[in-house]
Amino acid sequence: VSTQSTWGFNQRLQKQMKALILVGGFGTRLRPLTISYPKPIVEFANKPIVAHQIEALVKVGVKEVILAINYQPQAMMEYIQKFEQEYGIKITCSHELEPLGTAGPIALAKELLLADPEQKYFFVFNSDVVCEFPLDKMVEFHQKHGKEGTIFLTSVDEPSKYGVVLTEEDGKIKDFVEKPQEFVGSKINAGLYLFNTSVIDRIKPVQTSLEREIFPQMAKDNQLYSLVLDGFWMDVGQPTDFLTGTVLYLQYVREKEASKLANAPNIIGNVLIDPTASIHPDAYIGPDVTIGPGVVIEEGVRLKQSCILREAVIRQHTWISNSIIGWQSKIGRWVRICLLYTSD
What is the mean pLDDT of residues 96-120? Predict the structure, then answer.
């Protein structure tokens, strides 16, 4: 296939594409932050987690995003219009009245996904995932192998914590091994998928697992392929991983768009600061810190490896490390904090 014809196919493919983001979970692993807000709108690097995904989908040509919502739907609705205006995309909600797992929401959204008869493909994302989102590569690979599904894989140091995916050299998935006690491989499911619409016929609108029920059958039918992600990846669904993901993301920004990071005598390493934040010049910030809108950092404060969310106030001479300080939190003077995760 020539470069020109491949490009043309991708353009036609992208014009027809939709995406479903699984935002229906209760976010229990990220509490107390998710007591007040649904997890997808918790700010990661000063932007709602789901906004990172929507932005990536828009770049690859997706025209409509369907949010599979269960928990706190009203709070999600407040952000939808903002996302539509900011990213120039249509956002539709599919409301689960009861939890449907990771596959059931696809069947529930069947009419939305198939509303356009020319719709042949759609993305499905787990809402906890942040990475470089090389979706153009995923589209090209899916086009080449021609089967029903493509999933991104990522390599991890401790595969025994996850379900390992076994593949052929060409990416075809052979099997899934749940939390192996002996080393069988290091590639795990990264939570990002591209499907043919025919996959919808495999799923019923009841509580069903993509990972445990649908994917093994697709692999058995030789209909599931994989592509290994380049660059960083993290599931930020719990506080320690949220902070680790922040470190990885800030390093990615350093490599790709260093001008977005703060640069001042009191800044150490990779630090992202919203322009509306107020930071005393005698406060030392970094490395690996994000500071959100309206935050106030007073004299003598020391911050490292932490996320300070919108409108929090950190009083004089306080030291904070490896912590997430929630919205509108107020931390007093001469406080020492390590490994703390607060809400508003």
Answer: 87
